[in-house]
Protein: Cobalt-precorrin 5A acetaldehyde-lyase CbiG
Organism: Thermoanaerobacter kivui
Amino acid sequence: MRIAIIALTKNASKLANEIGQKLKGDVYVKEKYAVSGNYAIEGDFVEFVHKIFSKYEGLVFVMATGIVVRAIAGVVKDKFTDPAVVVVDEKGRFAISLLSGHVGGANRLALEVASAIGAQPVITTATDVEGVISLDVIAKDYGYQIENIEDLKKVSAALVNGENVRFVFDEDVEEIPLLKDYVKNDDDGEVDAFVYVTDKEIKKLLEKPYVILRPKNIVIGLGCKKGIAFEDLRTFVSETFKNLNLSLKSIKSIATIDIKKEEKGIHQLAEFLKVPVVFYTKEDLKKVENKFPISDFVFHTVGVGSVARPSAYLSSDGGKEIAYLKKDGITLAIYKSRKKD
C-alpha cells in the first residue's frame, strides 16, 4: 500500500516522520518543519489534500479529525474507490480508522500505525466491533468480485444482527477458513439472507437479500484462424458460458500462442471481458502437448499440435477441463484453475 503521512504542526511533523519511517510512506509537512526526504505542503491545505487524495492507497493525517473531515469532504466518492484514511492525534495516543475501513484497508492501516507508535487503534465498523466477518474484506483478500452489491448492506446487517445468513459454495471453490463458522444447513425458507461463493449464474428463488462472491477461477484457451472477428469470439464464448451456466465474470484470463499477439479480435475480447491475455511460445506448449490430442493441421500451421488446450492448461496451473469446443474457425478450451493446496 502506497501511503502518505500528512502533518501541519511541529510536533505532529515529528510524529509523521516516525510513522513514515516505520511504514515507509511519503511524509508531507509545512516547509519550515521539513527534514530531509519530506515533501512540503504549499498553498491552501484543502486544495493540497484534494491533489494527493487519489494518488495514494492510504492517507495518515496527524491532526484533529475535524480538519481531516473538512479537507476530504469534497473528494470522497465511495467505499470501493476511496483510499484508506486514518487520523492520528499529534500526541500519538489514538489511530482512528476514518474512511474506507474495509475495502480501502483503513482498519488494517490504523492497526499498523497504532502498532508502529504504540497508539490505541480506534475502529468503529460494526462487523469489527461485533467480531463478525466482513464480506468486502474477504472479497478483497481473495480477489473476488462482489455482485448484487446493492444488497451488501442488508446481508452485512443480517450478519451483524445475528440473523440466519446461508452461505452456498461451489464444491471446488477455494476454501475460506474465516467462513467456516458461518456455514449452516438450514432450509431456504428460514434464511434471512444468502451469500453465494460461486462461478455459476444464480437463479434467485426467494425474495431474500443476497450477494455473490465471484471467484476469478476460469481460464479460456483460444485457438483461431487469422483475422478472426471480435464479434465471432464474443458470441462463441458468451453462448458457451450460458450453456454451461457459468459467469463470464469468473474468467481470470485468456490464454493462447504468441503468434496471435497481433490478433485484434483477441485483444478486443480481453478488453470486453476485462482480463489479461497470456501468450505462450511454441516451446512452452510443446512441453505439455502430449497430454492432448494432436491436430496435423494445427501442427503444420503453427508448429505445435494443439493450442487452446495446452494454453488453458498452463494458464490454469494444470487445472480441470470444463469444456472443449470448435466453431467457425475458433477452438475454445475452458479450464478451471487448480485449487490451491
Q: What stands out?
A: The mean pLDDT is 90. The longest strand covers residues 320-327. The CA atoms of residues 121 and 308 lie 51 Å apart. The two ends are 27 Å apart (CA to CA).
